[in-house]
TrEMBL record:
Annotated keywords: Coiled coil
Presence of keyword Protein transport: no
SUPFAM superfamilies: Quinoprotein alcohol dehydrogenase-like (SSF50998)
Recorded superkingdom: Bacteria
Coiled coil: 164-208
Protein name listed in UniProt: Cell surface protein/lipoprotein
Amino acid sequence: MKKDYPRKLALVEQLRILVEGTGRTSKSLAAQIHISASSMSKLLSGSRLPPRPEIEQLVRVCHVTDEVRAQLLRLHTAALAEAHPSLADLLEKADAYEEMALEQLRLQVRLEALTTQQHERRVAYDVLRVEHEATSRALNDALAQVRARQAEFDAAGARAAALLEAEQEARRADREELRRLRERMRRMEDLRQEADELQERVQQQDDEICFLRQELSQGAEELHAVRADRDQARCETVQLREYLIGLQWELAAAERGQARRHDEEGLVRQTVDHILDRWAQPVSEDESLSTHRADAFGWTASATGPDGEDWVVSEVETGDLAAPATPGFGPGTAASTAPAWSSRIRWRPVAVSALWSVLVSAVGAGAWALITLLPPPPDWTVPVGTTMVAGPTATRRTVYAGGTNGTVYALNAATGHTRWTSPTHLIPHTALAADDDSVFVSSQDGNVSALDAATGQPRWSTPLGPVTGPVTANGLVFAADHNGHIQALNATTGRPRWSAPVDKDGVGAGPVVSHGMVIAVGQHGRVHAFNAATGRRTWSATAAAPVRNELTTAGNRIFLSSQDGRVYALDLATGRIRWNSHTGPAHLTADKAYVYACTTSGKAVVSALEADTGHQGWRHTVSQHATDTAIAVTGDILYAAADGEIDVLYAPTGESGWGPDLPAPPKNNQHVSMVPVDGTLYVNTAHSVRAINMGNDPFPAAVHGYGAAGQ
């Protein structure tokens, strides 16, 4: 078995590096050192240990230094010793002898160099001595000439001294004149500097005047807008006054209707007493065809009908009427025996039918008696020819939404009638911002535009590059551009007010406006707060992970959802992180007591976290297999949407009320968004905008005591 020797391999590796460093082929080197190409190949492959003469010739051909040559020879000796251990001592002595010979060679070369240098110095010394003798003779001759000329110079010096004195006097006069001229130049320079300073002051004053003119122009425009708002407010006041008058008329009509309902209740009581007196017959104690029971509200009569159904007739303060009976549901389930009816009564089946017919006729088919137990119907649904992907955003009179075709739809908030449409090429899944005068959108051509709220006509358009959805507050519009800056625009004119950097890689969440500050988060989790009026940075903070596009505020807290599934709470005034809690990637909404996180996909769970501590208050499961979710809160009502259903929850406790069903979303777009305004929930579904009147009591379960708490 062939044995590998490390020192031999090291020698071969060094020889290979040496050959490669020459840039020549092994064949040409083999010819130059008088060996065959195959021997050279074996030498470089390590199949044989090269003899020392070949190494010497290779070193000489490659022109290496003495140190490299000595290293290669030492490696060769070590390889020989490794291959022939018995010759190790002799090889070490040979190596030492080789080192001594090499050192002697170096010393010999150095000695020859020093000898040559000494000979050159001796020749140079002889040359310098000859030159010195010649120079000495020339110097003596020159000294004689100098002495002769010294006498001439002394005479000339006396004459020059007199001339020099006269020249110095003239120079003193010139210096005095030059001093006076320099003094004048310094004065002129001072005057020039004063003139430049005055020019700069004048320029600054001109700039200030231009700025004040611009401010005055903007103030005039804002004043015009305020006056227009005032005029519109006056018109709305007149409309509200007329509306209040109408409400007074409706109140009077309602009072008259209540009086009629009281008369109808009396008629019901009289009719029931009449039928009971006519059709009831006493029975024995063992017969249990019917019972009469009274509860806390009044009385309840129950009987078995001809088809085996239980019939229940209830008299309560609100006039509720229900039949047939539902086990475990309604006032009749908590009844107790009435003192006035101590005996059992046999009711004939025909009597029960007659009683039911009379009661239905008396109360107008009984429909009004069930109204308080059923959810109110939706106010309106407006189908559109595109998938809704922006909004909804609602004001007092109008609901705005956007579709995938880039069109903004303005709908009457009360009736759903289309006020106008505008093809703005808006960016999908962005927010729409609106006030009483304008609707603000981000378009795909990189502009932030304002549309007239009454007509939909463009009012202004400002190019910012690709931007996120805008928000508006205090007469300004805020949006994030593609350079990672927050841009503030005048809401009336669209003119830029200020710009502030957030992150060079883009804005990850925001902007959101709260308490006079604009909040935005960069792509790497850096949170920034800016003064909304001036754009001056108030504070910056860093979250532990990059942030999803989920950012909301409530009270003195900022809440954001990170990509690692955690919810962070920051102090609004300082940016200090107060707490964080793991919920999974979630949509957020908040009030002063809780922040509500609804997971975005998979098992959709709503978690209520205390705003001050992050402790979990309650949890509620919305869906087991959700593809997208939405969440919104207003007052004590929380709405959570998933898979075409909306759960209505009591925000402080998580108890469930009734919730409306939505059309099943299409598979290619299951995005649902919603916004509650004044008791009405506006929802963007697959191909429609829907308004749902939630009524005055969306929690009949909680009110009547049979609601299920959040799971």
